Amino acid sequence: MYLYIYDSFLNHKRYANLLAKIETRVTDLGIGGKIFRLSPLRNVAELLRDETKGGVKTIIVVGNDKTFSHIINFAAAYDVTVGVIPIGPDNTIAQMLGVSSPEEAYGVIAARKIERVDLGKANDTYFLSGITIEQGDVTIECENKFRVRPQMQDQVGIYNLKPATAGVGGGIFNPKDGLLELFIQPFQSSRWMFRKQPASSSSLIPFRKVAIRSKNSVSIHTDGQKVLKTPVTIEIVPDKLKVIVGKDRIF
Amino acid sequence: MFKQEHNRTDEVATIIGPSVQVDGNFVANGDIIVEGSISGSIKTEKNLQVGAQAKIFANISAANAVIAGEIQGSLKIKDNLELTSTAKIFGDVKTQTISIESGAVLHGRCQVGDVKKSKMEKIDDRHAKLKDEKDGPLETPLVS
Fold first, then answer.
1. How many domains does chain A have?
2. How large is the ipTM?
3. Does A205 contact B at CB distance below 8 Å?
4. In chain A, whose CA is at the least distance from the CA of B20?
5. What pTM, to 2 d.p., does this model score?
6. Beta-carbon count within 10 A of A92 CB
């Protein structure tokens, strides 16, 4: 049984035709289901609790990275499979899962290839892709064994999936290896920002648990969306989420 | 031992870049490349590469190592240690095999290969063993 969750931005009339097309197509393929439209007044936690009790086993997120990140924080608590129909430009997570367009998503959902993936957990917030840390004087304590101190201007991130800025092999960022990767790139002036850094100038440290501390409060963005403030504890939760993936996934 | 620069990161588990400073007991399961600064200790079951600009103030334990930077601390390498012309080691070295390029600096005791005991040490060991056998295990007397 499928539950389709539409993001609130899809209420705009310019998406009406696209949504009608999606609903027709999923019905034709026999993968139709209940539709829920997100809004600030509707409680997703209650919805998922009720629907999973009612027999929903698959949740299809219709929207972008922000929608997907929001939903997995609730879906991770249940034995459900999550798929995505990407709409709009901000859909890097869907692309990494092997779904680059709504047209491609129908086939992927119907084929129903499921992978169990790790999730990162920053305090109480789950993330699939990664987190970015704002520039600041931060110290990262890894596994309670050693401390890593990047330069103030370095770009510091923790990733489960391969970040777009990484010029390194995709195999390192594997959401099925039970590890997260601390990835630190040295500061580049805007003049040289499009020049690819040599691999040895970046730092890459795999880990299971870290604590991020700073003298002054520093913002941390999970999956580019939710903002947390230091201190933050980040850990890997292995095999936490079942996702529907396409053949062009990056892992 | 290490792949070429362009595909190195596909094979390597941990990289410490030049902008990063690490303090503490640094333990990794895979290969390690150090281009930055580390204080404390470094331990890996696999390979270690230390770049020319790297500065390490730590005791090191690894299977193989290629050193081009500066190390202040002891090195315990299971198999092969390679010191390039820019390497500076201030500490004791223990390894199975070693190659040292012209220009490398090594200040410390260097132990290469298996260590064979001297004749006197062997005699001492034999005496100690005989004494143990003669003394026998400690027995608790039975109380009637």
1. 2
2. 0.83
3. yes
4. A150
5. 0.83
6. 19
